[in-house]
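hey
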């Protein structure tokens, strides 16, 4: 956008409109749209604009897949018997969306969900992917932080010198959604959702317990 505005100041708009853009020259909003389209064409950045649009689309898709995998995992915990319901749900959502979007998100394995209670991070680990072997059985009283992390490229990551910031090694985008869910004898409640998880779980036929 800065490049386009600088181009306008150099007079490219005058070639088309006979006047420069600005707040006091009488141009209306429609003129501005026409001006930007003209600049995109004349300056030769149409392809560049398409690249930006493709990037935004891929980011929206990645965010949507990650969010969907979170709620599918929470619904899996509401109806399942073991923590492995999370990994199964995330992998299913990723595979289904790969067919829709034409690309498959990577599931980060280095960082996983966890139990939460008297400490921020407690057992058991809540994996976002399937593994061999039997995982922990769900029990009333458990509170689990479910947090799928997906990438647009490779799942390898690296931590910055601040020992907090984590980046993908290949520089591709990553997305992370998280909620904490309480497992109770008669159902579940999403503790970090304002409505307890009503809206997010309803597509899966799950009604969370109200704690009000």
């Amino acid at each position: 956008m800065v490049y386009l505005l600088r181009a306008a100041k150099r007079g490219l708009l005058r070639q088309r409109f006979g006047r420069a853009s600005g707040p006091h020259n009488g141009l209306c909003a429609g003129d501005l749209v026409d001006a930007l389209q003209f600049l995109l064409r004349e300056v030769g950045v149409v392809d560049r604009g398409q690249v930006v649009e493709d990037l935004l689309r891929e980011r929206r898709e990645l965010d949507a897949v990650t969010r969907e995998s979170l709620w599918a995992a929470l619904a899996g915990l509401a109806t399942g018997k073991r923590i492995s319901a999370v990994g199964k749900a995330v992998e299913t959502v990723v595979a289904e969306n790969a067919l829709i979007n034409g690309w498959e998100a990577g599931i980060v394995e280095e960082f996983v969900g966890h139990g939460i209670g008297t400490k921020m991070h407690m057992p058991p680990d809540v994996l976002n992917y399937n593994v061999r072997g039997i995982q922990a059985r769900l029990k009333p009283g458990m509170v689990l932080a479910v947090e799928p992390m997906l990438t647009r490229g490779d799942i390898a990551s690296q931590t910055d010198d601040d020992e907090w910031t984590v980046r993908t090694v290949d520089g591709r985008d990553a997305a992370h959604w998280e909620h904490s869910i309480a497992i109770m004898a008669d159902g579940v409640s999403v503790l970090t959702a304002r409505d307890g998880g009503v809206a997010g779980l309803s597509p899966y036929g799950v009604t969370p317990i109200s704690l009000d």
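The longest strand covers residues 179-184. DSSP finds five helices and ten strands in the chain.
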